[in-house]
């Protein structure tokens, strides 16, 4: 066993077995650097490129904290586009096989609002979606974020490029201050630094830019 084995982490044996069945033999660099902090409950800034395994870096962490008996959003993952939200949803569903009765709801634009509202009424533990549609649900009272323990901003630089900064801030205002916040970004321009300073609490920064 190397130190890059998932079994070195403080996670459930069911998740270790699930990762094994998914064929995840070793942690990727971002997982090895980020997961110990995520599992400790620290806020995280992670700089990493596409395909580096970011989803499991936040997914394994947020799943460990979810209480399936409480029906309310406990984790919120913001993504720039519907396609990226779909990808994150698929990967999180694979990781969630280790945890029975976890419900994930995708909230993206271009999909019927009423069906999403219906899914939310049946209880959702994890929300993955795009800022505009999530804001829509908040303003219409079909979603509440008071129970969020983990907030993830995935591909944060792209979300800011798309002009989502104000909407993201409005969404974050509706989450508890005690939440854990995890921010992923391929680049780290001034706008991201500013956002990090306002929404993260004593974050750890990890970077795997040098990975090929
Ligand atoms: P990113 O968000 O960084 O672009 P993803 O989280 O979508 O990357 O992961 C990219 C691919 O790598 C996915 O198909 C995922 O299932 C796979 N993957 C993630 N972590 C591991 C791992 N530790 N071992 C093997 N495959 C992995
Ligand atoms: Mg991704």
TrEMBL record:
Domain DEAD-box RNA helicase Q: 4-32
Locus of motif Q motif: 4-32
Source taxon at top rank: Bacteria
One Gene Ontology term, aspect cellular component: cytosol
UniProt keyword list: ATP-binding, Helicase, Hydrolase, Nucleotide-binding
A molecular-function term among this protein's GO annotations: nucleic acid binding
Chain ranges of the Helicase ATP-binding domain: 35-206
Family classification: Belongs to the DEAD box helicase family.
Name of protein: ATP-dependent RNA helicase
Lineage: Bacteria, Pseudomonadati, Pseudomonadota, Gammaproteobacteria, Methylococcales
Part of the full-length chain shown: 1 to 212 of 463
């Amino acid at each position: 066993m190397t130190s890059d084995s998932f079994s070195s982490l403080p996670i459930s044996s069911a998740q270790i077995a699930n990762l094994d069945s998914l064929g995840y033999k070793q942690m990727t660099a971002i997982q090895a650097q980020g997961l110990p902090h995520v599992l400790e409950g620290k806020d995280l800034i992670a700089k990493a490129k596409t395909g580096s395994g970011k989803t499991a870096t936040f997914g394994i962490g947020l799943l460990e904290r979810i209480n399936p008996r409480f029906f309310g959003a406990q984790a919120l993952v913001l993504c720039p586009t519907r396609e990226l939200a779909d990808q994150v949803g698929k990967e999180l569903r694979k990781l969630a096989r280790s945890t029975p009765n976890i419900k994930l709801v995708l909230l993206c634009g271009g999909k019927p609002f009423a069906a999403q509202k219906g899914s939310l009424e049946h209880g959702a533990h994890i929300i993955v979606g795009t800022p505009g549609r999530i804001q829509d649900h908040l303003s219409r009272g079909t979603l509440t974020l008071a129970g969020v323990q983990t907030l993830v901003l995935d591909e944060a630089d792209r979300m800011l490029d798309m002009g989502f900064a104000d909407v993201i801030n409005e969404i974050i205002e509706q989450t508890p201050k005690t939440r854990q916040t995890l921010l992923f970004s391929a680049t780290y321009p001034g706008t991201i630094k500013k956002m990090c300073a306002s929404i993260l609490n004593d974050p750890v920064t990890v970077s795997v830019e040098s990975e090929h």
